[in-house]
Write a structure and sequence with these properties.
Elements lengths: L10 H9 L16 H9 L9 H6 L4 H8 L8 E3 L5 H5 L6 H9 L9 E3 L7 H19 L44 E4 L5 H9 L8 E5 L2 E3 L1 E2 L5 E5 L9 H24 L3 E6 L2 H10 L5 E3 L5
Helix pairs in contact: 2-7
């Protein structure tokens, strides 16, 4: 159907057809991935801020948990209620005298949990946040308007090409391997990429505490931890294997190995002034650890593989 204006005499006949016409190329939604900064600005626009959103705009390029932690002081908490609907924050930081800690934990969760953050009354988007959103949309519109140059690179003769490493292909860009070498002891948290490619384990480490550095482990005191919890000095070790499905002999060997590991990690955390929590997937795993280390803080995350 050609694009034409719906004139008044034909309005009743052509209304539905005009309403369903294909949009012009200039009206198509931008197919490019949404930037994390823009996503953070949109998320923050739902909440009331006491500084007109200046802190949010300054921190918007960070991951949401980091933004939330750094700007929590500017949130108008008189107009916001926090509900720990997943119960993660309550078990992650068992201090009933610290409601602000639980509130920050709920607010900083990487994912938006329905009903966790409730705003009282209507929210007018903070001025600085609105300016940031408008600027992003203007830039996106200009990018869409630019002509797309489609050039085909000239093929280089095979004889002139540099030899490729074995197992790679031309043009492949491989990420650096995760850092596994021991670091000198330091009490400053040093984020490094998650050590393994175990996606369920890494997702649990990022979302359950929740992790201040999503996608990252952290070195503290010479030991590597799966997560540093948002808003508090709590380091986490996450275990997601199905311990209760192992044979008795395997369970005994596994617990012996974990006790040695967790004791070292807890000592390093305490030396640097951090609390230490172990997250396990099953109650049987928790019971086995507590039987050998009664003072160990262990919580059941329920994370599945």
């Amino acid at each position: 159907m050609s694009a034409r204006t719906c004139s008044a005499p034909l309005l009743l006949l052509l209304l539905s057809a005009c309403a369903t016409m294909d949009p012009s190329p200039g009206e198509l939604e931008d197919p490019s991935p949404q930037s994390p900064r823009f996503a953070n600005l949109q998320r923050a626009a739902q909440y009331p801020w006491t500084d007109d959103g200046k802190c949010v705009v300054r921190e918007a390029s960070n991951e949401w948990p980091i933004l939330a932690e750094r700007c929590f002081h500017a949130l108008d908490r008189d107009r916001v209620r926090f509900r720990d609907v997943t119960k993660r924050c309550a078990v992650a930081y068992a201090d009933a005298a610290a409601p602000a800690v639980v509130a920050l934990c709920v607010f900083a969760a990487p994912e938006i949990v329905v009903g966790a953050v409730i705003v009282i009354g209507a929210v007018v988007v903070a001025a600085a946040i609105q300016e940031g959103i408008d600027a992003y949309q203007r830039n996106a519109s200009r990018e869409r308007a630019k002509p797309k140059a489609q050039t085909r690179p000239a093929k280089e003769p095979l004889a002139n090409r540099a030899p490729q490493p074995k197992g790679s292909s031309t043009g492949d860009i491989f990420p650096p391997p995760p850092e596994t070498q021991p670091r000198p002891p330091s009490c400053e948290p040093i984020p490094v990429r998650h050590a393994g490619e175990d996606a369920p384990h890494n997702e649990c480490a990022d979302k359950f505490p929740p992790n201040r550095y999503p996608g990252m482990d952290v070195f503290v005191g010479g030991e590597r931890f799966d997560a540093l919890q948002v808003g508090v000095r709590v380091l986490w070790e996450i275990k997601t294997h199905r311990f209760d499905t192992y044979a008795d002999f395997i369970q005994e060997r596994e617990i012996e190995k974990e006790v040695e590991q967790l004791t070292k990690e807890r000592d390093a955390a305490r030396t640097c002034g951090y609390d230490f929590v172990v997250g396990v997937s099953t109650q049987a795993h928790k019971d086995a650890l507590r039987a050998l280390i009664p003072t160990l803080h262990v919580v059941v995350t329920g994370c599945t593989r």
